[in-house]
Amino acid sequence: MPEYRKDPVVKRWVIIATERAKRPHDFTVPKDKNKSGFCPFDYGNEHTTPPEVLAFRPEDTEPNTPGWWVRVVPNKFPAVDPELEIQKYGHGMYDAMTGFGYHEVIIETPDHNSTFALLDDKQATEVVWAYVKRFNAIAKDQRIKYILIFRNHGIMGGASLSHPHSQIIAIPSVPKRVLEELNGAKDYFDYKERCVFCDMISQETIENKRIVEENEAFIAFAPYASRFPFEVWIVPKVHSHNFGSIDENEISEFAKILRNILYRIYKVLDNPPYNFVIHTSPTYEEGKIYYHWHVEIMPRLTRVAGFEWGSGFYINPVPPEDAAKYLKEVEL
Amino acid sequence: MPEYRKDPVVKRWVIIATERAKRPHDFTVPKDKNKSGFCPFDYGNEHTTPPEVLAFRPEDTEPNTPGWWVRVVPNKFPAVDPELEIQKYGHGMYDAMTGFGYHEVIIETPDHNSTFALLDDKQATEVVWAYVKRFNAIAKDQRIKYILIFRNHGIMGGASLSHPHSQIIAIPSVPKRVLEELNGAKDYFDYKERCVFCDMISQETIENKRIVEENEAFIAFAPYASRFPFEVWIVPKVHSHNFGSIDENEISEFAKILRNILYRIYKVLDNPPYNFVIHTSPTYEEGKIYYHWHVEIMPRLTRVAGFEWGSGFYINPVPPEDAAKYLKEVEL
User: Fold this and answer.
1) How far is it, in rounded angstroms, from Cα B248 to Cα A39?
2) Contact B268/A24, CB-based, under 8 Å?
């Protein structure tokens, strides 16, 4: 049974994921799960995953059979479990909570060897539709406080299966990193009476040195204080705190710019590992005026090591102005 | 010239390290710096590093020649620069600061193929003496607010050279991660009138399920809310906020328990990559009653991926109680 545990000093939550429990030996033998050639996300292997919770498929096909073009299933080895009751308890001086939550996988295409960067407009848009539909479905569960959509690409990016997929983890508390953003954005709003992300868009537009691409609804830029080489953020141009309220036109604009940025990274850095996360407000009505949803794309080119872990500072050897220049030059 | 830049939302500082500036190509070709066989930290290559700032060597040897058993030099590709003036400046809405600071390398032994886990008592103690001497020397510079001593081991741990070494980075502000610990420890003290780390020692001792080793002056345990599999913290038993005030007896006890824990990890996990950091109070007199210096050792067995970056939550598949059991069983 997974368990949340809280660090008593910095109040950081950790999920002790017993479903994924490992012995020392599991870390010392090289993993090559995909070398066997079997992939649970391929056509014909639908029965090897938990039953689908959403699929875009022809009307004349049965659930959990081939034919789908996007498919969402619960994670077979979930970090958290939607069947658990939420219970908080103490353990001496320490705080813990049952590991309630949702952990789902969005299989982005039946094509095992593709990747988000290489999807066409239509397919990328369908993937984003799956994000939005699952986001809004899970948001109806009042016990859930935060829904995180993210993508790990490449072994170094933490992807244990190479078949193109994203993930959703939904949890009953607001995570620390998001709280920091909410608090920071609120401080800024209290001082300036403006949204800090809206101000960033304005600053980036005036300078035009870190913008990589923009379209009608979104802007993508290398942030001024990029933690990682070639980090890129995608931000909606019109203020909006909630990813779930994105409309049909925005969905297709968002899918395009996200795919384009991933393609630029793919070309400039030769298909590097990366992570992206969608940061949005908590599912309750927080942050409406001061928070602004966005995507943070983080190529995994440098190793986060002792200094970064110890300090929370990052050392980045690529000025974001240079990164933007290289990424902009890519022909789409 | 390196530059500190501040994220306008979460106020996280980043060092844009132009001394280490890289082009996209540098990330796409495999690095095998050490494959050439040349190591700047070996005997006879002392002239290839910046001149030593401290060395333990026989009295009849010249500086920057062989004979030393521990040697400290400025980093040849420093993230920060001690020659810069501190200047804060704005860049539109953004905040920046010149990249002032110290970045030094502690070469732990002349033996290229050794590692901290395999040092004998005497050599491990000498390394800790070098930590303490450099810590206290740098602390005299009033412009420095924080000194971080850390060690990266293995390529996956971020070590770009395999010759055994630790690093020191000293900066003119208190890093975010440390501030969080200071604030958390202060909150706890305000509520309980006790040090949270002292309480953890008491809790761990009562339970005795996560302790890996202890000696006269130190205790090592797998923390209750371990972020990483086989994470271990080493904490002085007597309350002390400042690493720099460690005494001669404590230095040798600390060296032994640190080496022993690293040896246990080396044996159980077959010489895995890891990072460790020494967390101490800022160099000014903060945290005296409520903060408690300690070491955090983090084996790098799982990949920190989208979920962790996006949330600040960690998923750990090894309960710390299990990790402690495996580590305890190792024969020293």
Assistant:
1) 58
2) yes
Phi/psi of residue B71, nearest 5 degrees: -140, 135
Q: Domain range spanning residue B130?
A: 3-175
Q: In total, how many domains does chain B have?
A: 2
Nearest to B41 by CA among B147, B102, B114: B114
A319 interfaces chain B, CB cutoff of 8 Å = yes
Domain end call among B113, B146, B175: B175
**Six-digit token string for B219:** 């205790």
Q: Assess contact for A289 and A153: CB atoms under 8 A.
A: no
Chain A nearest CA to B45, separation (Å): 26
Give the pLDDT band of residue A107 (cuts 50, 70, 90): very high
Instruction: Name residue B277's amino acid.
Output: V
Q: Give A126-152 pLDDT, tens digit per residue.
A: 999 999 999 999 999 999 999 999 999
Which residues are bridge partners to A296 per DSSP? Answer: A233, A277
Q: Which residues pair with A71 in a beta bridge?
A: A55, A107
What the block records as the tokens of B232 is 């271990």
Q: How far is B37 from chain A (nearest CA, A)?
A: 23
Which of the listed residues A156, A174, A192 is the one where a domain comes to its end? A174
The answer on B202 and B112 residing in a single domain is: no
pLDDT in tens, B227-245: 999 999 999 999 999 999 9
Q: Which residues of A touch B328 (CB under 8 A)?
A: none
- My answer on whether A185 and A280 are in the same domain is yes
Among the partner residues A18, A207, A320, nearest to B319 by beta-carbon distance: A18
- Select the residue from A19, A313, A329 to test the B interface by mutation, using most B Cβ atoms within 10 A: A313
Domain co-membership, B167 together with B312: no
- Kindly provide the ipTM of the predicted complex, given to two decimals: 0.92
Q: Does pLDDT of A177 surpass 80?
A: yes
Smallest Cβ distance to A22: which of B13, B199, B317? B317
Mean pLDDT of chain B: 93
For position B25, which CATH number holds? Answer: 3.30.428.10
Could you tell me if A100 and A80 are in contact, meaning their C-beta atoms sit under 8 angstroms apart? yes
**A 64-103 residues with CB < 8 A to B:** 79, 91-94
Q: How sure is the predictor about B288, in pLDDT bands with cuts at 50, 70 and 90?
A: confident
Same domain for B302 and B184: yes
Contacts of A319 in chain B (CB under 8 A): 16, 18, 21
Q: Are residues B182 and B167 in the same domain?
A: no
Residues A142 and A225 grouped into a single domain: no
Phi/psi of residue A122, nearest 5 degrees: -65, -45
Residue B149 has what pLDDT?
97
